[in-house]
Design brief:
single chain; 181 residues; mainly alpha; N-(1-d-carboxylethyl)-l-norvaline Dehydrogenase, domain 2; 2 domains; two-stranded parallel sheet; 8 helices; 48% helix; 3% strand
Length: 181
């Protein structure tokens, strides 16, 4: 793909809402969402949606770089899927410790892999071009949260270590929350 070229890989859902339940959405916001060309939905607190996005990405992006594969290839019923399942279990434990519901994380991760089966993740693309990846803000942040909460995330540590050894620029653990919290 040429520099500055855009590849429309799919039409996702955009969520907008207040960070905390104590905040209120602006009047008229719902009408704006209904008349916008993108798929925009309002939620009562965006924090849950941010964690869901981070959780899903933490179980897909780094693995596509490690295994040099497209998103859908992670569901191969072999080593890739086993590694992904381990990340899902660990991520669910972190979400539970944070008080975030994670009952359908496996289904969500698998669904994203299926819907975006032919996509090459941005992490894969950055790794192949020897550019810095966003992994410190995804898996690195999740690892920091796990450490703070006393949750063991061996699979996430192994993934980051393996990618680092493979020369993927995972960056330093995020000092600022990618969730805005």
């Amino acid at each position: 793909m040429a520099p500055f070229a855009v590849c429309h890989a799919g039409r996702g859902q955009t969520w907008i809402g207040p960070l905390s339940a104590q905040q209120q959405s602006e009047p008229g916001f719902h009408d704006l969402c209904d008349n916008f060309r993108l798929k925009v939905r309002q939620c009562h607190t965006i924090e849950q949606k941010l964690w869901e996005k981070l959780a899903i990405n933490s179980c897909i992006n780094g693995l596509t770089a490690l295994f040099n594969c497209r998103n859908g290839e992670l569901l191969d019923n072999g080593e890739k899927q086993a590694r992904q399942d381990q990340l899902i279990i660990e991520t669910s434990k972190v979400l539970a410790a944070l008080g975030m519901p994670a009952t359908a994380l496996r289904e969500s991760v698998y669904s994203v892999c299926e819907i975006t089966a032919s996509n090459l993740s941005s992490t894969w693309q950055d790794a192949r071009r020897v550019r810095a990846t966003e992994l410190s803000f995804i898996n690195g942040f999740l690892i920091q949260q796990a450490n703070t909460l006393g949750v063991t995330v061996t699979g996430h540590h192994q993934l980051m270590d393996q990618l680092s050894v493979a020369g993927v620029k995972t960056g330093q653990p995020a000092m600022v929350s990618p969730l805005g919290i």
